[in-house]
Write a structure and sequence with these properties.
Layout lengths: L10 H13 L1 H5 L8 H16 L8 H26 L13 H10 L35 H7 L20 H65 L1
Protein name: Regulatory protein zeste
Keywords: Transcription, Transcription regulation
Subunit structure: Self-associates forming complexes of several hundred monomers.
């Protein structure tokens, strides 16, 4: 659906868009899983556009509605950052404007962590809508908007909610030695088991050969007895 882009969305459309994203947080996270595929995301954005265009207000295609959501996020996060910044100032001046109900919901959806001074692009799913639904995923799944990059420069991390990144601890020498010993023990165990299997195999093979030799000897002895009897019988006839 192309259509002509309207300048402003209605408050009802804004409320519905926020509610839709709140119900489909996979679109916000922008990560594909076994249960949330590329095709699933495409269908959701298409459904969002149809629902929003059925409400009085702006008329947009799915890409324009996605851009609207990105702009709402960027504006809300910038406003939240300004509120926190103003609250830490000791001087005078007018108090900052509070977040409205819709903006509060947006903060709840995206999380209360805002970033300042880092040009880290926010995850948004990039679609190739014109392609076949079975086509491969685009090479770049994360595509920040210019507004998002600019807003990242104004935002900052709240100290009490700064994400804790766990660093992978390097293995100590004793741990590495222990792992090497365990690997060696496992190798010795496997080698021993292999040798035992070979030993049993050769034992069975030798036993079989012995039985074959014994059987041949018994056959030879039987043939010898038969030959002797035949000679005696022939002698008596003469």
């Amino acid at each position: 659906m192309s259509g002509t882009k309207s300048a402003h969305i209605s408050s009802e459309q804004k409320t519905h868009l926020i509610s839709f994203m709140q119900e489909n947080k996979e679109l916000v996270e922008g990560k594909f899983t076994k249960n949330f595929t590329f095709k699933t995301a495409q269908n959701l954005w298409n459904r969002a556009a149809e629902e929003l265009n059925s409400i009085p207000g702006a008329r947009k295609d799915w890409k324009q509605w996605r851009k609207t959501w990105q702009d709402l996020k960027a504006k809300t996060k910038s406003k939240k950052a300004d509120i926190i910044k103003q609250s830490k100032k000791t001087g005078g001046g007018p108090p900052p404007e509070d977040l409205d109900l819709g903006e509060e919901k947006i903060i709840q959806i995206i999380g209360n962590t805002v970033i300042e001074g880092q040009d880290v692009p926010e995850s948004t799913i990039r679609f190739n809508w014109d392609g076949d639904s079975s086509s491969q995923l685009p090479a770049e799944l994360l595509e920040p908007t210019e507004e998002q990059v600019e807003e990242k420069k104004k935002e900052r991390i709240l100290p009490e909610e700064k994400p804790q990144f766990s660093r992978k601890r390097k293995a100590r020498p004793a741990e590495r030695l222990d792992k090497s010993l365990k690997a060696s023990e496992q190798l010795v165990k496997l080698t021993t088991e292999k040798n035992k299997m070979k030993e049993k195999y050769y034992e069975k093979k030798i036993l079989l050969l012995e039985r074959q030799v014994k059987a041949k000897e018994e056959i030879a002895e039987s043939l010898k007895i038969i030959a002797n009897r035949l000679r005696r019988n022939n002698g008596s006839l003469l």
